[in-house]
Amino acid sequence: MKEYKIFVGGEFVSTKTSLDVINPFTGDCFAKTFLAGQKELEKAILAGKSVEEEMKSMPVYKKFESLLSISNELKKKRIYLAEILSMESGKPIRYALGEIDRAVQTFLVAAEESKRIPGEYLSIDWTAAGEGKEGWLKYFPLGLVAGIAPFNFPLNLAVHKIAPALAAGNPIILKPSRSTPLSVLELAKIISGTSFPKGAVSILPMDRSAGNQLVTDDRFKLLSFTGSPAVGWKMKSDAGRKKVILELGGNAGVIVTESSDIDLAVKKCLVGGYAYSGQVCIHVQRIYVQDSVFKEFSGKFTKEVRSLKVGDPLYKETDVSVMIDQDNADRVEEWVKEALKDGATILAGGNKKDNYFEPTVLTATHNDMKVCSLEVFGPVVTLEKYKSFSQALEYVNDSRYGLQAGVFTNSIKEMNQAFYELEVGSVIINDVPTFRVDHMPYGGVKDSGLGREGLKYTIMEMMEPKLLVKNT
Amino acid sequence: MKEYKIFVGGEFVSTKTSLDVINPFTGDCFAKTFLAGQKELEKAILAGKSVEEEMKSMPVYKKFESLLSISNELKKKRIYLAEILSMESGKPIRYALGEIDRAVQTFLVAAEESKRIPGEYLSIDWTAAGEGKEGWLKYFPLGLVAGIAPFNFPLNLAVHKIAPALAAGNPIILKPSRSTPLSVLELAKIISGTSFPKGAVSILPMDRSAGNQLVTDDRFKLLSFTGSPAVGWKMKSDAGRKKVILELGGNAGVIVTESSDIDLAVKKCLVGGYAYSGQVCIHVQRIYVQDSVFKEFSGKFTKEVRSLKVGDPLYKETDVSVMIDQDNADRVEEWVKEALKDGATILAGGNKKDNYFEPTVLTATHNDMKVCSLEVFGPVVTLEKYKSFSQALEYVNDSRYGLQAGVFTNSIKEMNQAFYELEVGSVIINDVPTFRVDHMPYGGVKDSGLGREGLKYTIMEMMEPKLLVKNT
Amino acid sequence: MKEYKIFVGGEFVSTKTSLDVINPFTGDCFAKTFLAGQKELEKAILAGKSVEEEMKSMPVYKKFESLLSISNELKKKRIYLAEILSMESGKPIRYALGEIDRAVQTFLVAAEESKRIPGEYLSIDWTAAGEGKEGWLKYFPLGLVAGIAPFNFPLNLAVHKIAPALAAGNPIILKPSRSTPLSVLELAKIISGTSFPKGAVSILPMDRSAGNQLVTDDRFKLLSFTGSPAVGWKMKSDAGRKKVILELGGNAGVIVTESSDIDLAVKKCLVGGYAYSGQVCIHVQRIYVQDSVFKEFSGKFTKEVRSLKVGDPLYKETDVSVMIDQDNADRVEEWVKEALKDGATILAGGNKKDNYFEPTVLTATHNDMKVCSLEVFGPVVTLEKYKSFSQALEYVNDSRYGLQAGVFTNSIKEMNQAFYELEVGSVIINDVPTFRVDHMPYGGVKDSGLGREGLKYTIMEMMEPKLLVKNT
Amino acid sequence: MKEYKIFVGGEFVSTKTSLDVINPFTGDCFAKTFLAGQKELEKAILAGKSVEEEMKSMPVYKKFESLLSISNELKKKRIYLAEILSMESGKPIRYALGEIDRAVQTFLVAAEESKRIPGEYLSIDWTAAGEGKEGWLKYFPLGLVAGIAPFNFPLNLAVHKIAPALAAGNPIILKPSRSTPLSVLELAKIISGTSFPKGAVSILPMDRSAGNQLVTDDRFKLLSFTGSPAVGWKMKSDAGRKKVILELGGNAGVIVTESSDIDLAVKKCLVGGYAYSGQVCIHVQRIYVQDSVFKEFSGKFTKEVRSLKVGDPLYKETDVSVMIDQDNADRVEEWVKEALKDGATILAGGNKKDNYFEPTVLTATHNDMKVCSLEVFGPVVTLEKYKSFSQALEYVNDSRYGLQAGVFTNSIKEMNQAFYELEVGSVIINDVPTFRVDHMPYGGVKDSGLGREGLKYTIMEMMEPKLLVKNT
Questions:
Q1: Tell me: the pLDDT tens digits for A78-103?
Q2: How far apart are CA A71 and CA A102, in angstroms?
Q3: ipTM above 0.95, yes or no
Q4: Which residues contact A464 (CB under 8 A, 6 or more apart)?
Q5: pTM higher than 0.95, yes or no?
Q6: Chain B partners of C420 at a C-beta cutoff of 8 Å?
Q7: Distance between CA B17 and CA D73 in Å, rounded?
Q8: Å from B472 to nearest chain C CA?
């Protein structure tokens, strides 16, 4: 069985506490790694602090070359990494490969953006008080960053913290999910071969109590957390003086209007709804279809959902596989049952076997049901009709969350109204809310989070402006 | 009879050659001014060159205050100036007032933009060759500018050269149209009361031979010309080393689709087609209507055209009045006759009386007719139907010109296609091509011109970048 | 005695709790106003929430005109307002007039920036996943804002919260200092005459317990606080999901090198050190002079300090007057005594009479003394020598604070090093850290705060990005 | 002997007119290629026009990948290409390798910038006329570009036209110098292996009469010329409606002040003065040294000049080799003789052998001599002293040219004054004017040119803005 050492201040080390990594599909423990304790964390923090100055003064071309080399290495090891990722997470290999490709892209863009940290010129003489002066604003790295990543994109969501931290010139300590630590520990090996100084990156699986120090310790200048709302918002209160970025969940809505391409909408909603069993922050959870085309959409969509190929995530034909663990499958089952009891009906799916939950379509739901109002984080989609477009927008907005929303339409008026009124971070026209490319600003409003990821945006969050006012 | 001295290097002077200013509606000479000769031009050039350094080093707050004070003065004298402008140009007072308001806005925005000349930061160390270096890019005024303005917006199109020149820190010599020199000479009085140095602005009506020196003299660093294509493109060849901005004419097209608001389209096309008798660079000349709504549009539009109120431009009810002179009215008549002879039919108007030409709608035209292919610069609109949207785009593009185009539609696809395919400077969705606000980038492609006006854009054209590379 | 009603959701109202306003120089109560209780605050919140939508959809030109009209009204009432401000704060009239001028400028720039809320274009097709798509990023107002302003710039620091909130399209509830509520209540009268809807701005003096609701109530989307570090950082923990901007204090340092213009440095340090008795966040607290010129600087500076004109703040000759209250004067006296006991010596001043404290220069201090390490917020400056420039930078950085720093030098190397190494928000070359113009980004690092003020920057903090991804 | 076919519309073809390529060091003809005639040019133009639409609609990721693959291929063939370049141009191999590295970088940056074509958001409602509207400004490729490249950087200066043209989405026809066509024809082979359509790039050596069509033919939308001022400015007049970028020559000046690091200045001036025998547009031609350090600088510099290693350009130790041809060597000799006759004295060098001219230092020159006032484009440097810094700036500015200038100083005041007053495109502090990195804006003022190169800047010159105004 393969053993992965954890990455502490540039060294690969083992600790007293070993951590089994389980394949959710087979249920086997196929690899082991270690949990960091207080000692390893302290070592990583000291290593990080000790290279802050070196990171800050690193010339741009060295940062660029190192980040680019990571991107290139990930590309070379694409299939190898995708298999590890698939095994630790149960993610179908097709999507696992897609995730590696995105991590390749995330490091590539980070490399490019590291050259493009903006500066700003300010004419200061807008009043006589500033006569003879001008200002130049530059950005400097904040210092040590703490990152906490989730299980559902074990590599790329960790990379969305590591790559911008490095591009900005910050050392970072990253805590992966304990379920899925392997792909990011593989990344650690690649990073250790670059010219970034030892301590620039540490990758430490750890328990929540150790993880808590990432939140409270004042030596971290920024905390970037991707995970559940309840945990995230608590962290904001506990974070002391550091800045906080929160990428939390949602219950994303889609609107399908009669002016849209229904077949396109069906096809996109299928992927958005069931890829990785809906364990995606921007998974399509609620679909609202204009009543004139509801029947058409419903028929086509339900048929496609029933045709999804279920199986071993390592098979390239597999569309859907198991969920990350039994607890989550149980929770989804419970929520669906609750919905059915309260009047919902099933158009497809609805059954569970162990940690596998069938791709499910519910209708006749209402907003008090958990499958509507909370983040289902499973392969369950609700399908409802609407009359007026304004009503559809209200349905989508009737949520504590606001991450992304999709609108299928050919109407300029509807596009404008949706963009203006939808309370979300992004409105995707003629695609699902699940749409994300790695350089776009990504993040939510309301309970869905604080701040934006996406390389350029994260990099700026991870830097501090400093103004030089000088005579001209 | 009122006499206006011309504005030469900060002095108001008379010359040996007087110039009568005719009211096109009454035919009376109601004021006189003077033509500059070689001597006055030389004096203005020397005055301009002598203050280049002072203009360049003027603190931002002084430029701002002076430009703002001009805007405020224009506002105070709004009605007085509108009447002068109406009399010299025959422009209905409602539109003359609108032009003063726009000149107020143009100076206001110039004032604001004078504070916001951008600088740019460049990290230079993208390769080892640049290690330890950084770059700061700033913009400096080019030096003396030559401006040539047309008769149709006697004040605001002159202001679009004067205001950005001053905001950029350049002295300018402006040649107004000999038909309409008064409103801009009124502006000269306002400018002479500010803290801009004497010589910063000269306003000189002049004959073409003197005007030619504005084109050829190397002491001018930029020529900004608004006028006819034939004259403009010739200037580009004769301009020596100076930069050239050309704002030339067009034969703007509008597309009205069945998904649009027909009443809105009618209302907008009426103003776009006949305001100031179509003597506007972006006047609506060619309307293409989807066949399913052609009849509706045609009926409503023709009815409205017939209801336009004709009369004395000084009356506030007047919609349409005379053209600038007999020659232009004759030319329009000739073109319309040619079209009729070649098969066009008249839906409204078509008659001329002296220098008044009726608001006219033609149909059954084709693209070989002058009323289609050339710039009619008169109150004549052609109205044709189209089948597919692609065809409509082809119709609009089948022109040597490309200034602006209007598209009335509610379809995202049509909007996208129009924006991508139309060969123009601006595509206006759900409004006429005649739409312009003074801070937007304005200018044409193909034979319609070179470069963009609109304060921020003109200011940048009137400046030279200079890079400082220094150690960090 | 004049009575000021407080400004609650567009109405001027009195409450059950009256608040006496004391002239710190005479000790007289010269006006009264009212403290808001829970009821008034709730009314203001409801009023603010009720106009969020109207504020969000206000066209730019209306926001611009309203903000500009406030600026113009403040200008008209300049002397009247300065006298009120001087009386409530004890600020010498010369500086009070300067503060009104700055508030005029702050609203002017807010008006201009309200037109320039940026949008951003993103090509989305950086990978095949984004083919056929593009992104447009726009910014929308956050919603209701809470602002808490201090006594030392009673008007302009409140305006730095109100003006950007309005420019961004946010309603705001502002709590002024209970010592100095009058000038901002005068502003309320001006605002109530504009076209901003009722509820867009409320101005409520209140006690700390009511003020605490500004921090904790989730209906506020952002809290902007200017005040002391201890209070500020606590607020960050208590703020729930809202964003927080903290503008806290400092103990600003100045470095005077031998390559600098000593007379300039003396003159600037005099104003930076003693204007408004040092009750300024960026007051010059610590001066480090290169040993070769220490004697010269020290002699000239001490002489000037002794020549400062002390007296009634309403006299235009007055340089220095009383402190805001007895408590603060006592605190400063205690700190100076502690320093003297620990070995410091006095070069000028050192005495207190009632709430007046003499302009004071100390030397032979060390960093354990409160006059060095804490924010003195009084007319006390320490003067020490240094040998190497690196040492001087270390002295300035040896502080928990980091707001601004000044460096007098003609050396490019020293400028570069200072900008790179000084841990502050701004480095001012050849001027004191007290330098601020209202459009520049202003704010501190370390314990001095979080985020930046300065119109453009605050406006952006007060808005939420929203991305539109659409087909092209 | 190797034969190179020319690259016409995606095909490698031979023509009736062969062209011998001479090694300037050996005098041997070591390869042959062909001159394009009218027929080949027409074929290339038609091919270019035919792919304009395909280039315009190419998704960003395909442009990026293709440009990146060119960069990577150049890197792989680095040594092979450097040898060819060295042989065709006589450029010492060390500098030839440097040029290949720069071409690698130029394509890399073009790839990155192709993703970052900016768009701009405009709020249109600054007046009531624009209520309900917003603007989005995008940039579209101009269409077919003509490029004319010189002999002195046979590859990288061609790449500075080809790479941005492709990044912008424009096809391009490039005319290399007839002396040095090989390295860029090697590039053609690399380009032909990418996914750019056939016709996107043509590389055609041609005679001046055919070359003239690049200037006059209206099917080209932009002409980018690098070469001599006399030829360049003539082109501007002949260019018809197309845009023109001119990168012409200069006689760059350096100022060495007493506050600078003299050894650094000597070292940098040596490379700037004699690399590639001064056949560089920004070669150090005129050095002005403050009188207090003149002797020191002069002694050290002259000594170093005498130590330069002369020899075969293919040897890696070689510092200096032959000039491009006999004519140029003769011209330099004649200019030096003229200077000596008029009173100049020689501090080093001065002799010619065939097409080799010794690295030469002259002093006691004055500005009427050709070695001062014209572009020497050979290994000749003048060395003079100055008293005041203002005087030094006047010396540098006393030139018809204005490309770049270098200033060695540690004084902030001198840096500011130099940046403000020097009439050049770039001021390089503490380095020579010869400094250039490929992403910085590069270009001259006065007779030295028009427009800027440097990827981002050239790309923008090669695009046309188009504005969409739409309802919100």
A1: 999 999 999 999 999 999 999 999 99
A2: 10
A3: yes
A4: A139, A140, A141, A142, C445
A5: yes
A6: 472
A7: 70
A8: 6
